[in-house]
Design brief:
The chain is of the alpha/beta class. It has helices spanning about 20, 25, 45-60, 70-85, 100-110, 125-130, 155-165, 185-195, 225-230, 255-270, 275-290, 290-315, 340-350, 375-390, and strands spanning about 35, 90-95, 115-120, 135-140, 145, 150, 170, 200-205, 230-235, 250-255, 320, 330, 355, 355, 370. Strand 11 (about 320) and strand 12 form a beta hairpin. The longest helix is centred in the C-terminal third of the chain and has 25 residues, at about 290-315. The structure holds pyridoxal-5'-phosphate.
């Protein structure tokens, strides 16, 4: 029997909710259904709220805070049990966010003018961080697969590593926006070439706990000795437990030659100083959030199936690509026969929906939209009705 109510519509107005507050600024209208930025509209598991209320409400001093053994152990236990990712307390540090962690890795391990490989379509801040820090972004474009997902172009990757001499590459694992859980064998090949070519792999595993439809997440650093030697992994409870606003993430580096100087630099510059709220919520989430997460994933699967079925029956020009992980659904709108700009206008102005337009993730994302499934079913259904009406009005 369901213990948590994911059907509940919670009004997020007046709660500093970015999804709502920047609608006018980013979409030009504030009356759109907000289905874009990747947080969920579900209440967090009660144990997180209870832990925060207990600490903040029952004790009135919020002074300097230290990271404590129970906090570290909650991350270590969760990763070992859920993903088979084993590391010790020495091998993990706190970072305030995944993009923050990426920025730290770029600044520490690479120099201005260095080349860094990404694989588009992919989460757009990677490119921004690379270029914003004066590094050169190289795209090893993902190859479209018949199922609407993507595969890595390993031949081209090897050529780029050999000829362009990048110092880093990013693996979005699982992949956003495709929702792909990369196979261990693929990750092993990437790690081998990275090691042979002296490339550090930054593995963004923020969606690693959110696997769907029986798929499994493979932490990059676990696939081989090569992978353990070259990988800097960042993960977080933020997407998993819907606590992105608390800014809590972790970074694991298995190879001491990379880790020791990197972690020392982070520590000296106090870049790993966590705030009280983030660590309390993180421990509560990892210790007690498992049952909530299982129900949440099941609910997201239901939302995905609803959209797939709805498109199939009523909007055949749009294909909802079945994700293997995450709560983001990649809508392939090429069948509508519209230009990319027309697709964007259709969703925003005719359907009244605020989603992420696919071109944000690179050229290959044209005529795609990214639809956030982390909302109550009634909202997802409403969005589909609005979309259907808009398409039929064309
Ligand atoms: C793949 C991926 N990495 C990182 C982030 C952002 O993480 P953070 O807020 O911890 O920087 C997101 C947010 O949507 C994401 O999709």
């Amino acid at each position: 029997m369901a213990r948590y109510n994911f059907d509940q519509c919670i009004d997020r107005h007046g709660t500093q909710c970015k999804k709502i507050e920047v609608l006018k600024q980013d979409y030009g209208r504030d009356d759109l259904l907000p289905l874009w930025i990747a947080d969920m509209d579900f209440a967090v598991c009660p144990e997180i709220t209870e832990a925060l209320v207990h600490r903040l409400g029952d004790h009135p001093i919020y002074g300097y805070t230290c990271l404590y053994d129970g906090y570290w152990q909650s991350i270590i236990d969760w990763q070992r049990e859920r993903n088979g990712f084993e590391f010790t307390q020495d091998e993990v540090t706190f970072v305030a966010g995944i993009v923050t962690g990426f920025g730290l890795a770029v600044n520490f391990f690479t120099r201005p003018g260095d080349k860094i490989i990404i694989q588009q379509p992919v989460y757009y801040p990677f490119k921004d961080v690379i270029e914003g820090n004066g590094r050169i972004c190289i795209n090893n474009a993902l190859l479209p697969s018949p199922d609407g997902l993507y595969s890595m172009n390993l031949e081209e990757l090897e050529r780029l590593m050999r000829e362009e001499k990048p110092t880093m590459m990013v693996v979005c694992n699982p992949h956003n926006p495709g929702g792909i859980t990369w196979e261990p064998d693929i990750l092993r090949k990437v790690a081998r070439m990275a090691r042979e070519n002296g490339v550090i792999v930054f593995s963004d595993e923020i969606f690693g706990d959110l696997t769907l439809f029986g798929h499994r997440h493979t932490p990059m650093a676990t696939v081989s000795e090569d992978a353990a030697a070259v990988t800097v992994t960042c993960g977080a409870p933020s997407k998993t437990f819907n606590i992105a606003g608390l800014k809590s993430s972790w970074c694991v580096v298995k190879n001491p030659e990379l880790r020791e100087p990197f972690f020392k630099w982070i520590e000296i510059n106090e870049l790993c100083n966590a705030n009280l709220v983030s660590i309390i919520a993180t421990e509560a989430a990892y210790r007690h959030g498992g049952p909530w997460l299982e129900e949440c994933l099941h609910y997201i699967e239901g939302n995905v199936e609803l959209v797939q079925q709805y498109c199939h029956e009523h909007i055949p020009g749009i294909v909802a690509v079945k994700p293997q992980a995450g709560f983001l659904l990649w809508l392939d709108c090429t069948g509508l026969g519209l230009s990319h700009d027309e697709v964007v206008t259709l969703f925003r102005d005719k359907a009244g929906l605020a989603m992420n337009e696919g071109s944000m993730f690179g050229e290959a994302g044209k005529c795609h939209m990214r639809f956030n499934m982390g909302s109550p079913r009634s909202v997802i259904h409403q969005a589909m009705r609005q979309l259907e009406a808009a398409v039929k009005s064309l």
